[in-house]
């Protein structure tokens, strides 16, 4: 029961990952902050190019397709589509490098 | 002419080679490094590739490396009321006339002596 050789899930079952299934409130706050930071970069770029009268295809496409942080639903901010997960959703923190990649839109209807 | 002031905010460790290549092309090698590039679609496209990693501002002119360094220098916590050069001249002027007779070099030498004694 006690001591160094006690039976725990990790010891008896081998590999046991303890990744929470959902984000904590502070993780969610930081996620929103990162989303806003990207929005700000996009805004700066588009303002600067508009002043010069230039256009950029990738920027136009982003603005047309991607919602800003304020437009996004909480569901899309903190979870993402997964075809293998129950109810087709998993936490966004399961995405590799999730703090440094953009993942904003999901399949319609899911 | 306006510039993008680009700061590398997040490291690109573990990200694809393409991403790190874009950062290298922008001249960003370490976090918190700042580079300036003219506002153009070409550089905007490069920033788009690494938009999650950088902070971007639009500025009127590009700062040199030296200016960036000076802008980061912390407040020394003191200021010099009067440069020491003036004080040396004042001491020599009020002191004996021997310094003036021996010439400019001598007078400056005696001024230095006064400075050290004080």
Description:
The complex is a heterodimer of chains A (110) and B (118). By secondary structure, chain A is mostly helical. Chain A has a domain of 71 residues. Chain A is 43% helix and 5% strand. Chain A has four helices and two strands. In chain A, strands 1-2 form a two-stranded antiparallel sheet. In chain A, strand 1 and strand 2 form a beta hairpin. Chain A starts with 8 loop residues before the first helix and ends in a 19-residue tail after the last strand. The model of chain A has no long low-confidence stretch (mean pLDDT 92). Chain B has 118 residues and is α+β, with helices and mostly antiparallel strands. Chain B has two domains: 70 residues, Ribosomal protein L30/L7 (Ribosomal Protein L30, Chain: A), CATH 3.30.1390.20; 35 residues, no CATH class. Chain B is 47% helix and 14% strand. Chain B is built from six helices and three strands; from the N terminus they run βαβαβαααα. In chain B, strands 2-1-3 form a three-stranded antiparallel β-sheet, with no helix packed on it. In chain B, helix 1 packs across helix 2 and helix 4 crosses helix 6. The two termini of chain B are 53 Å apart. Chains A and B meet through helix 2 and helix 3 of A and helix 2 and strand 3 of B.
Q: What's the helix count of chain A? A: 4
Within the CATH hierarchy, at the fold level, what is the topology of the largest domain in chain B? Ribosomal Protein L30, Chain: A
Q: Main sheet of chain B: which strands, in order across?
A: 2-1-3
Distance between the termini of chain B: 53 Å
Number of strands of chain B: 3
Strand content of chain A: 5-15%
What class do helices, strands and sheet pairing of chain A give?
Answer: mainly alpha
As residue ranges, the low-confidence spans of chain A are none
Poorly predicted spans of chain B: 93-114
Over the alpha carbons, how many angstroms does the gyration radius of chain A reach?
20 Å
The largest sheet of chain A has its strands arranged as 1-2
Order of helices and strands of chain A: HHHHEE
Helix/strand order of chain B, N-terminal first: EHEHEHHHH
Largest interface between protein chains, with number of residues from each side? A-B, 24 and 22 residues
Major sheet attributes of chain A? 2 strands, antiparallel
> What oligomeric state is this?
heterodimer
The residue fraction in helices of chain B comes out at: 40-55%
How many whole angstroms does the radius of gyration of chain B measure?
26 Å
- The span between the termini of chain A is 46 Å
Instruction: Report the count of strand segments of chain A.
Output: 2
Shape of chain B: elongated
Pfam families (chain A): L31
GO molecular function (chain A): structural constituent of ribosome
Protein name (chain A): Large ribosomal subunit protein mL60
InterPro entries (chain A): Ribosomal_mL60 (IPR016340)
